[in-house]
Amino acid sequence: MRILMTTTALALAALALPAQAQSIERDIERDDGQATRTITAESREGKTATVIQNIERSENGATSTTTRTGPDGQSASVDRFTQTTDTGRESGVTVTDRNGDTASRNFARSYSEQDGLTRSASATNRSGETTSSQASRNYSEQDGFTRNASVTDRNGDTARRSQSAQCSDGTCERSRTSTNREGESRSVTNTGRRLDDGSVLRNRSVTPSNGETRSREFSRRGKSRRN
Hints:
Blueprint: H1 2-14, E1 21-31, E2 34-43, E3 48-58, E4 61-69, E5 75-84, E6 88-96, E7 102-112, E8 116-124, E9 130-140, E10 144-152, E11 158-168, E12 171-179, E13 185-194, E14 200-207, E15 214-218, E16 224-226
Antiparallel strand pairs: 1-2, 2-3, 3-4, 4-5, 5-6, 6-7, 7-8, 8-9, 9-10, 10-11, 11-12, 12-13, 13-14, 14-15, 15-16
């Protein structure tokens, strides 16, 4: 969240004009798929600031660059892009402040029959520290569903979570596994199997980070057995 707030604050600062502007001039030039917008503000003291925005559009997306030059001659810029791919869509924004430091955010979304829907995001602050996340889900009438998610912090440590469910030959299984940033894993598996007499036999297994699995079996009559 702090990275996103930093990027937003930089964007607002980069687009600021003098508060006490005596005059403001606007100019727009358009061409095939392109446009340039220029704003020039002059203060009562004769100081000027400009904002120039270049936009380019195509069939697959668009890019824009907004550059602000202040009365002191220093510049800051905001670059944005959106792009449509064969499997989804990508977008991003990069902010460069007057000191040349940058912060960026990028997003991607894709879909394929093999991997299902995948979403990813990353953010890099002015110190070069990056955080990222990724999530995917896939559904199949034959194989059930799978869901996976991961988050990587600025230190490169990753936490993961996965879920799956499937049914075959009268037995249904649902499992969930989570791994924290220290690499410790915990898993839970629930299964249900229909017996010949029509009752359902359920089993729940829990494996904590120490690797010792505990399970409990339930019958339809409410009886249970611990292992």
